[in-house]
Amino acid sequence: MTVTKILGENEWRAREEAHSRRMRVWTEPHKRRRQRGEKHPVLDFLFTDYSLPASRLERWQPGPNVVLTGPGARRFLQRSGYRETSGSVILDESAFTDGLARTTRHTLSLLEAIHSRRARFDCFGLHEWAMVYRAAPERIRHSQVPLRLGPSGTDAVVEALNVRCSHIDAFRFFTEEAKPLNRYTPTRKTQRELDQPGCLHVGMDLTKRRLPTIPGHSERPSSDPTLTPGRCHHVAGTAT
Q: Of 55, 64, 61, 80, nearest to 216 (Cα)?
């Protein structure tokens, strides 16, 4: 592996603390809500639906081709995906398997397709309304949060406006009654053609897209330091 940067212990510890501090903006409120047994209809999605525990999000990873020096760096060897080199620690390049490479190429192809098309902002978040359209109370996922217009008012909005959801992972949660009202019928096969950069869920899904491209999920170093899980989570959280 080509070494592009050597970090002294003071430097990498400062980066580690800065990362943890940025992530605690998201993780600490999440932990407090869990302690109180309180659910959040939006922010919990970023941890539970993407299978990203708060502790992993707080965990800093140096990225590829980075050598960590100093005695403290040895604790990284307790994580899978690192190896020792000349008394220092670096990402083990063998962790980037052929399967991981295929996943990365697929993800890159999807993101390039999304980036190539013009953003569309005319869906107005109606996917959330379509998820509760004509739904019985027991079928509503976050029933602890009352509908702003009530059931009949919510149904009237969905019926009056043109639902234009193009993202499969939003559309698949539509009620069966709402699906025929949607302009598109997105599927996994059409995702590359339909996903677009103005979509709220596409922005949130950066976290989901990022995690499988990291050797050992989020427990190993990022293979692209410009698109770390922490940065993706920040984008996803801001998008909500």
A: 80
The residue-averaged pLDDT of 62-81 equals 91
Per-position DSSP letters for the chain, written without gaps between them: ----EEE-HHHHHHHHHHHHHHHHHHHHHHHHHHHHT---TTTTHHHHTTT--HHHHH-----TTEEE-SGGGGGGGGSTTEEEETTEEEE-GGGS-HHHHHHHHHHHHHHHHHHHS-----STTHHHHHTTTT--GGG-TTTTS--TTHHHHHHHHHHHS-B----HHHHTTS-TTTGGGBS----STTHHHH--TT-HHHHHTHHHHHGGGSTTGGGS--S-TTS-HHHHHHHHHHH-
CA distance 137 to 124: 24
The phi-psi region of residue 86 (left if phi > 0; otherwise alpha if psi is between -120 and 50; otherwise beta) is left
Point out the least confidently predicted range of 86-95, 147-156, 183-192, 206-215.
206-215
Residue of 173, 189, 6, 197 whose CA lies nearest to 117: 197
Query: SS3 string of 159-201?
Result: HHCCECCCCHHHHCCCCCCCHHHECCCCCCCCHHHHCCCCCHH
- Per-residue pLDDT for 189 more than 60? yes
User: Which pTM does this prediction carry?
Assistant: 0.72
CB atoms within 10 A of CB 95: 17
| Residue 125 one-letter amino acid | G
Question: Among 181, 234, 202, which residue's Cα sits nearest to residue 114?
Answer: 202
Q: Are 84 and 69 in contact (CB under 8 A)?
A: no
